[in-house]
Batch of 3 targets.
Target 1
Amino acid sequence: MTCDVRARALSFRRGGAEILRNLSFDLERGLIYGLIGRNGAGKTSLLSLLASYARPTAGSLLINGEEPFENPRIMAQVHFAHPSDYSEEYDSGADFLRACRRYRPLFDAEYAGRLAGELGIPLKRSLRSLSRGQQSALNMVMGLACRCPVTIFDEIHLALDAPAREIFYREVFADRERHPRIVVISTHLVSEMDYLFDHVLLVHRGQLLVNEPLEKVLSRGCTITGGAREVELLAQGKRVLADRTLGGTRQLTLWGELNQEELKQARERGVQTGAVELQDLLIHLTAGEGSNEETR
């Protein structure tokens, strides 16, 4: 089964508070989506809607043309891997993998066992006796092995050590080729994981600020560095995300792609242009309402 996800004017309230407001986006099979944003931006609430944990307050959310909430056909095709509290869980890791096989029709038990072995997860022990890192690794294994058409990882890496994270990155990337599906990764480790992303969804204060392919997002951010007057002239009409001055040298971080004529002007004026990493764009685009965010 293949799935597509379509959200239009999606909103969600909890306890009278507006968590998500008027989000519209599409998720396509075969792509890895990076869901990024600050703490409290609404990322986990959005993922909960995708995973049928909650129902939207307004707007529409369709997976394969159907509403996912309390829909058994759709719920079986979506896997939500997230940090879990296993302190009272006496079943073993092997028990959990068997349960996953029972409820996930595409679950690959052989792959799960092989990956668990590589990660050093003692599957015969109860989950409550495993370390936090081992518990997170098991959640990762279930998410990868489920082969669900929509697979969500919400901060799954939090307790993983560096070698385990590298295995996760390797397998997510390789599995896209072996078993194409929609993969959504929510993370704060943007600088470490951004190379995995095909598409970026940036949520801030419950709204979708960015919904574009990674290459497009990176092309829209740049730095210009040079004499204060030359930099100021080149930045006219652009949104300035950050402004730094050191002596007579000024550097602006801009949101807005420079065209060929502007690049030519930069060279002629001795202004250097540079790329901006996704994590830096996240920091600047979600900054407070201070003077750093302005349009020249």
Target 2
Amino acid sequence: MDVLSDVIMTMRTGRPHSGRGTRSAPWSRRLTASEGAGFHVVLRGGCRLVPERGEPVVLGPGDVAFLPHGTAHELTDAPAAPAAADGGRHGPETVLLCGAYLLDRSRAHPLLSELPEVIHLPASPGRGSPLRAAVDLLASELEERRAGADAAIPALLDTLLISILRTWYDEHADHGWAAALRDRGISAALRAIHDDPARGWTVAELGARAGLSRAAFARRFTALVGRPPLSYLTWWRLTLAARLLTDTDAPLAAIAKRVGYGSPYAFANAFKREYGLAPGRYRLARSLPARDGDPVAEAAGTRLTAAGRRAAVRR
């Protein structure tokens, strides 16, 4: 599996949720911090996104705002709009498409954690036709609610997330993980690790996948990824193990083997060093009930229902 898909699948918990809503000025909506990642798309009109830290962002028609860290923020039609003036009925209308992805921050990957608090992707000619297509399809499904919408909407939300991230990485490919994904050799080595994390990889073998000498590969990998190759391999194995402990009832011995450990004892020691808990205690601690709906999606008037939360826990 490619690295970006693998990372998203590992961090995601449950199903994403979204909604389409119309606000008439004056209006303002304050959104508290969240464990998830949220987005806002302006379909018509305009508004301002005011993060808890940082400068306000003016959003126009077609603009996409993505908050990968669930940052607290306010949406408002104008700088002077009071926070209590939510949903007035007399001024210009703004149509918003908002949603959220539930994430497990204990399994945070630098591919997502190094992103800025707010990503603003203004609508502009030639920018991100796949992103525009994902927005248009999702908006249509939410508005029309035709047969099959319950299956189509989660898939389109996944497509939207990938399109947002691809657009951002394509435009910021000069450093960090964005550069690692664009580097032909390092991305080949990363894909090898993610395709077969249980394999006993050596730096020389990974370097061969990258088409570099052992020393040159180790230097370049560390510079772009932020840790040496085998350190990243160990960390990713334990991140996968954390997901398996949370999402499956597989025995510890089976999980240890699946992520490349020859014995449950060696796996347990490595896992405790990384997470501060033995695997069994980690599994128990992670079996708590799911949280309520994400406030980002509530900006468009939606809320994850109790039935939806139960479905999310089962996934």
Target 3
Amino acid sequence: MVIFNVLLLLLCGLILYVFFLKRQIKLLAKQVNTMSADSKKGSRFFVDFREKNLIALVDELNQMVNTYESEKVQVKQAEENLQLSITGLSHDLRTPLTAIDGYVQLLKLTDDPLKKKQYLDVIELSVSKLLEMTNQFYDLTRIDLNQKGFDLVKLSLNDTIQDNFLNFFDSFEKSGLTIKFPENGESIHVLADKVLLNRVIQNIIQNILRYARGKVEIEYAKQSNFGVVTFINDIKPGSKISIEKVFDRFYTESKTRTNTESSGLGLYISKRLIENMNGNMDAKLVQQQFSIEIKLPFI
């Protein structure tokens, strides 16, 4: 009799267990059906019946929801950034396009060789600016959509920077800038993408040519597991740089959108590229001395 009562209790307990389990599974299935893509952010699955396997299932479902919401936020941010990029660049592209159109019309109206050369020089400069902007836009969209691939290899930071600066020797000379490299500096090797690191350095050089005066100093150092390079220069009189905004998208020293020298994307893109190569890029402004520091993994 005792055994019978025990078995009866176990059977009743099993029936209740199965009942509550099936009930909870039905409620969970209803939650799955009602939780659409437009559900309020933060919505999660839950159960009242505390069964180990069921709780594990709910935890997995909630983890999937977390991943989905995170990806949804990233996609939305990428779309907003892309729209902002299109709007900003569309505005910036008008200036060189208008210049090209205007000077082409002037070319048609003159037979003076000197004026023709002058107009062609302006057109050539505007075309170069258009190419620079379209390259930046291409980089920007690939970064925002996480489509830019990286080929990280061992590189000499010193040689890479020196080669790029020497390529701009005539431009520095024309701008009255003196470049000071370290004397007998130790060679620093870092892990980076050669093409993209060159792009970053060239963006920095363009920034130097626009805003620096006098002398540009380049310093190298090792900090923990990073190779570090710092570019230091005085800025032109009257320049008003907001140091907290220099890496913002479309930031230029000019507060208007009529700055024909810069789209305001170079440093923003450079910082993103360096971060995607597991490094860091920072800027400082002390009185009239501006500096940019790049850190990349040391090898």
